[in-house]
Design a protein that fits this description.
This protein has five helices and no strands.
């Protein structure tokens, strides 16, 4: 259990590090397409999270140990794929690229209040996804602990 909590904490740190420490020294105009891409990624992630929740429901309902093991492996693979996708979601919108040098929560000249609101919204969505991933990891770990030893 301690190992899983440590893994979850390290995962959150790794996923949030690009957003917290990335800097861009040259101001460039924001790209509206970036926002649409981010919305598309968010929608895909939400769908994948729902699928993972469905997998976990199947795992809980199955009584066949071999089937449960197979479903657990599929769930682990889905978690790993989703984590890769989340890393790719950091992008310029999260790190401040396109708005000069800034860190999380900072406002740079040329950035409108609407830009700040959009940025805040996207960061909030990303944090929500990270929390859901951590919950999935913890559920996965609980199911692994409850499985009979081989």
């Amino acid at each position: 259990m301690k190992r899983s909590i440590l893994f979850a904490a390290l995962t959150v740190a790794a996923l949030s590090a690009p957003a917290a420490f990335a800097q861009d020294t040259k101001p460039t105009p924001a790209k509206p397409a970036m926002s649409m891409d981010m919305d598309k990624h968010m929608t895909q992630m939400q769908e994948k999270m729902k699928a993972m929740q469905g997998q976990m429901d199947k795992i809980r309902k199955t009584t066949d140990p071999k089937e449960r093991q197979k479903l657990m492996q599929e769930h682990m693979q889905a978690m790993q794929e989703n984590m890769k996708m989340m890393r790719g979601m950091g992008g310029p919108m999260m790190t401040g690229g396109g708005h000069g040098s800034m860190m999380m929560g900072g406002k740079k000249e040329g950035m409108t209040d609407a830009d700040m609101m959009k940025r805040h919204e996207m960061m909030q969505k990303r944090m929500d996804m990270m929390q859901m991933m951590m919950e999935q990891m913890m559920q996965h770990d609980q199911m692994m602990e409850s499985m009979p030893a081989k």
